[in-house]
From TrEMBL:
An example Gene Ontology CC term for this record: cytosol
Domain NADP-dependent oxidoreductase: 16-318
Molecular-function annotations in GO: oxidoreductase activity
Phylogenetic placement of the source organism: Bacteria, Pseudomonadati, Pseudomonadota, Alphaproteobacteria, Hyphomicrobiales
Signal peptide coordinates: none
Annotated SUPFAM superfamilies: NAD(P)-linked oxidoreductase (SSF51430)
Protein name: Aldo/keto reductase
Record-linked InterPro entries: AKR, AKR_Detox_Biosynth, NAD(P)_OxRdtase_dom_sf, NADP_OxRdtase_dom
Family matches, as Gene3D superfamilies: NADP-dependent oxidoreductase domain
Organism this protein belongs to: Allomesorhizobium camelthorni
Keywords: Oxidoreductase
Length: 344
């Protein structure tokens, strides 16, 4: 396993990390992902650790805390061998203080997560969404208190816009509060919006990307094909409405390109899609999920080899889209690009 620094921090994380969204799965979204119990989770974690995957990602909102509980029980006795990443800010109830990133909510959420995880510290806490109703100074000063208390080691965010990250980093620098070192983002061959603004920001500010849904919300499994109905067992029947939209024709063009590379490399489509991500700037770790050992072992096969420059270029062409304003001039006009060349 390749290990990379998490952004500009000193923490090294594996190129692949494991997403525990399937642990204890319940409800229309997480239940469709999977419902891994503690016994099954222990086995999946065994396989991960044997392969060098030491970072496990979860969130309080995953099955209303059940994911954290199952993960905590599954790592019991080997806490020192793993890194735990969890997230908070999304609603955990209907009360006025059951969502957001206020001082009250953050302190309570961290304490609750520590209890569910059965640990006294969290390696990486990420804010799951930007809370426009809470002053950023309140958020950052609270995170500073939690780091100083030893409850958190590092802090990051997820699903933030560029200005939200940058304003937070500026205030952190001004007051000496902890900087965000990670941004958990949606990024895949079918979803390249991360490249417009967040990737250049990450390069400039030392914010590492933890990639969620690297297979495009389940669309890059190799099972979805042009002219064929959605497979009966696809979780997209239950979860498509929760995920990002994808143009079908563009998806099929990408799958065609993946098919070509699969024939050349002897690798599966998911392995190629993940390996492509591992070659991109700022990517610290790609979060893989699995409902069973077979899926996990297949995804682990995405490391230990590399796509050629030609193969990457073909996948880039098949998946490219026109950047929105004000980004497209820097990609399409030489004069703009000379002043501010694209990150990729």
């Amino acid at each position: 396993m390749d290990y990379r620094r998490l952004g500009a921090s000193g923490l090294k994380v594996p190129a692949l990390s494991f997403g525990a969204g399937t642990f204890g799965g319940s409800g229309p979204l997480f239940g469709a992902w999977g419902s891994t119990d503690v016994t099954e989770a222990r086995r999946l974690i065994d396989i991960c650790l044997e392969a060098g995957v030491t970072l496990f990602d979860t969130a309080d909102v995953y099955s209303n805390g059940a994911s954290e509980e199952v993960l905590g029980q599954a790592i019991k006795g080997r806490r020192a061998d793993v890194l735990i990443s969890t997230k908070t800010s999304l609603p955990m109830g209907d009360g006025p203080n059951d969502s957001g990133s206020s001082r009250s909510r953050l302190i309570r959420s961290v304490d609750d997560a520590l209890c569910r995880l059965g640990t006294d510290y969290i390696d990486l806490l990420q804010l799951h969404a930007f809370d426009a109703g809470t002053p950023i100074e309140e958020v950052l000063s609270t995170l500073d208190d939690l780091v100083r208390a030893g409850k958190l080691r590092y802090v990051g965010v997820s699903n933030f816009s560029g200005w939200q990250v940058m304003k937070s980093l500026s205030l952190a620098d001004r007051h000496g509060w902890p900087r965000y070192v990670a941004h958990q983002v949606y990024y895949s061959l079918v979803g390249r919006d991360y490249e417009w603004e967040l990737m250049p920001l990450g390069l400039d500010q030392g914010v590492g990307a933890l990639v969620w849904s690297p297979l495009g919300w389940g669309r890059l499994t190799g099972k979805i094909r042009r002219g064929q109905p959605l497979p009966e067992g696809s979780r997209l029947h239950q979860t498509a409405e929760f995920g990002p939209p994808v143009d079908d024709e563009r998806l099929f063009d990408i799958v065609d390109a993946l098919d070509e590379v699969a024939l050349e490399t002897g690798r599966t489509i998911p392995q190629i899609a993940i390996n492509w991500l591992l070659q991109r700037p700022t990517v610290s770790s790609v979060i893989i999920g699995a409902r069973n050992e077979e899926q996990l072992c297949q995804n682990l096969g995405a490391v230990g080899w590399s796509l050629t420059a030609d193969q990457i270029a073909r996948l880039d062409r098949a998946s490219s889209v026109t950047a929105p304003y004000p980004y497209f001039p820097y990609r399409r006009q030489e004069g703009f690009a000379r002043l501010n060349p694209p990150a990729v």
